[in-house]
Amino acid sequence: MIQNISDLGWDESSGADAFFPVDQLEKSYEVPPLTVWGVALCVSGTVIATENAIVVTTILATPSLRAPVFLLLASLGLADLLAGVALILHFLFLFCVEPSDWSELLTSGLLVTSLTASLCSLMGVALDRYLSLSHALTYGSGQSRRRAAVLLLLVWLGACVIGAGPAMGWHCLGAPDSCSVVRPLTRTYLSLLCGGFLVVVMVTLQLYAWICRVARRHAHAIATQRHFLPASQSYASKHSSGRGFSRLILVLSVFVGCWMPFSLWGLLGDASSPPLYTYATLVPAAGSSLLNPILYSLRNKDIRKVLLQACCPNRYSHNTHVHYPVDV
């Protein structure tokens, strides 16, 4: 779904060709020369697929990582892994073989499926954090794991149905006037998709607002039991709270910065919009797949411990580890 960087420039051409230039649709097709943009596309897709494959393999290969949060992180890693595969496929179709209608539909459908599942999994991670705080005594049981598995099954079924839309006929290959800023998606399809993305983003932000409120209430209760007021907490407690707040701000800033621009542009733009704007908003959304393993999975103490044990088995012992759902 990404065109050669040489076609970007400052051309005010139709946004319908933002991802597949007109010269790719000509009968006499010649494979374009490899560009810096093509190399970046291939390398980024490979890095995204590799790091997320490591996360998914680590979780699935470790029996102790079966809490709801790890199911959500595995789902997030799988979705981002598919996004990396979609970028690699687009590189192959763009620079190695002649693209066709089915290749456009395949890459666009795969990317829509992966981004939808990734965003919903991020919302699931926020929900896990909230439930682990508000229901700390009961959350993490076998029943909670079953509910998380059912929820993820519904998420992936929904993502696959949404992603199959272009292949099922909801595309603009035969009607260029109905194209959105992302070829071959129609404006109606992309508007519904981006509207759904905005809803998920707002729900996720609301969940994090509830998390802050519950965490502050718990901190006040602990301080009261220890006969301290929040204003007279020790330096260590203040430092820990400030560090946790900074991490939360970082996670939310990356989340909003990656998803909000494309969600808004998909609603406001049309086929006549400059392709450069589409790139400027879609690249951060795809880039979230590169940052998610770092911000979520690799920050978890249990996952880090398993990876360190795999890399240095003689240095790190296989002690029983404890699940910290809020530390994700």
Give Rg in angstroms: 22 Å
CA(first)-CA(last) distance? 32 Å
Please describe the biggest sheet, giving its number of strands, its sense, and whether it closes into a barrel.
none
Tally of individual helices: 8
Q: What is the typical, i.e. mean, pLDDT?
A: 79
Gross morphology: globular
Helix content: 55-70%
**Structural class by SSE content:** mainly alpha
Q: Total strand count, please?
A: 0
Secondary-structure element series:
HHHHHHHH
Strand-residue fraction?
under 5%
Low-confidence stretches: 2-27, 232-237, 320-328
What structural keywords apply?
328 residues; mainly alpha; 8 helices; 0% strand; disordered C terminus
Task: Outline the structure in words.
The structure is a single chain. The chain has 328 residues and is an all-alpha fold. Helices cover 66% and strands 0% of the residues. The chain is built from 8 helices and no strands. It has helices at 36-60, 68-95, 101-134, 142-163, 187-225, 235-268, 275-297, 301-311. Helix 2 (68-95) runs antiparallel to helix 3 and helix 2 runs antiparallel to helix 7. The radius of gyration is 22 Å and the shape is globular. The two termini are 32 Å apart. The model is unreliable at 2-27, 232-237 and 320-328 (pLDDT under 50).
Short description:
The chain is mainly alpha-helical. It has helices at 36-60, 68-95, 101-134, 142-163, 187-225, 235-268, 275-297, 301-311. The radius of gyration is 22 Å and the shape is globular.
